[in-house]
Amino acid sequence: MDGVARVASPLVLADQGFFWVGVTRKLQPYGLAAAGQMFVQYQIPAERRHALPVVMVHGGGGQGLDYLGTPDGRPGWASFFLRRGHAVYVVDRTALGRSPYHPNLHGPLGPPPSYDFMRGRFVAPELTPGAYPQAKLHTQWPGGAAIGDPVFDQFMAGQGPSIADLARVHADMRRCAEALLDRIGPAVLITHSAGGPFGWLAADARPSLVRGIVAVEPQGPAFVDAPGGALAWGLTAVPLAFDPPAEAPEDLLQAPLKALRPDLQDCMVQAEPPRQLPNLCNCPVAVVTGEASWKAQQDHGVVAFLQQAGVPAEHLRLEEHGLHGNGHMMMIERNSDEIAKLLANWIERKTAMA
Fold first, then answer.
1. 217 in the Ramachandran plot: left (φ > 0), alpha (ψ -120 to 50) or beta?
2. How far is Cα 191 from Cα 203, in angstroms, rounded to an integer?
3. Do residues 161 and 111 lie in contact, with contact meaning Cβ atoms separated by under 8 Å?
4. Alpha-carbon separation of residue 124 from 149, 167, 227, 293, 305 (angstroms)
5. CATH C-level class of 4-350
6. What is the 3-state secondary structure (H, E, C) of the chain?
7. CA torsion sign, 107 to 113 to 118 to 122?
8. Catalytic positions, written as ranges
């Protein structure tokens, strides 16, 4: 599990450090406390070849370490992008990782993830009876699936529960995204899973500062019930700025989107004529989907919702780019560097004029 041998040369940095954004204050019986903050780690390569930094936003019960390394000891996407000459900012969202949690300040948590659940969703869906159709294609997990497997243990050690109120989670995302972008300026965002709404909310709040979004299997599809609440505003649990304006979720009339293949799920989009998302209309978006993830059934619905709302979104299905067997945690799977190369090429092509 030692990734050192895989590193061809030392990683040379011009600067690195950390800070918190989105700090609020709450008066408690024992005094005034800081709450709601988001931890941000940054690294600037000595040879910086791209003007726009990349901000990496983790998913549900994960933390920024999902991008820092893999559970079998290889360098993560943060190192890959640094070597490509990008400045990299990796966050721990509110009440996760290095962003401290307390129930008096952040509300109750959902349940912690179990080994059985995580095996079926991330580690070995191909071994789960009655799993989704694409599960049988999963081949890229870097370790074993048995309890006690060291890679499985390393993965589980970094996973935890999330704040139980989804609307609160998304409100924290928006506030912290605003503060981060106001501090660092224009950036490209890489989001994952339940961190996906961070991208939509950031671009909605600071359209001039979000120059692209790579949404890796983002939370969705539109209007579904997610852990902690519903995506009542399409892809978020808190309002986005639509045109014509939507004053309440009920203003977003829904219509079914029929799946084109039997291995895909029917989804919901807006009824015609759809309201637009003007603050995202100039932001290139790539929705990235693994061949063997349960999200392979659903992500077409996210893309359809975005395109219908005027967002220049495209769907990068990994198998269509020669990358096979990936599940939901593609950034820590065996071929993570090959996937990072695909994403870096997309980012650099889309932001070449920035």
1. left
2. 12
3. yes
4. 13, 31, 22, 10, 30
5. alpha beta
6. CCCHHHCCCCCCEEEEEEEEECCEEEEECCEEEEECCEEEEEEEECCCCCCCCEEEECCCCCCCHHHHECCCCCECHHHHHHHCCCCEEEEECCCCCCCCCCHHHHCCECCCCCHHHHHHHHHCHHHCCCCCHHHHHCCCCCCCCCCCCHHHHHHHHCCCCCECCHHHHHHHHHHHHHHHHHHHCCEEEEEEHHHHHHHHHHHHHCCCCEEEEEEECCCCCCCCEECCEECCCCCCCCCCCCECCCCCHHHCCEEEECCCCCCCCCEEEECCCCCECHHHCCCCEEEEECCCCHHHHCHHHHHHHHHHCCCCEEEEEHHHHCCCCCCCCHHHCCCHHHHHHHHHHHHHHHCCCC
7. positive
8. 193
pLDDT tens-place string over residues 5-17:
455 689 999 999 9
Mean pLDDT of 165-192: 98
- And the tokens for 93? 């969202």
Mean residue pLDDT of the chain comes to 96
Contacts of 330 (CB under 8 A, 6+ apart): 140, 216, 217, 288, 290, 293, 318, 336, 339
Kindly report the number of other CB atoms within 10 A of residue 24's CB atom. Answer: 13
Does 46 have pLDDT greater than 50? yes
CA dihedral 346, 348, 350, 354 (to 10 degrees): 160
- Of 45, 37, 50, nearest to 16 by C-alpha is 45
Between 170 and 354, name the one with better pLDDT.
Answer: 170
What is the pTM for the complete model shown? Answer: 0.96
pLDDT at 4: 42
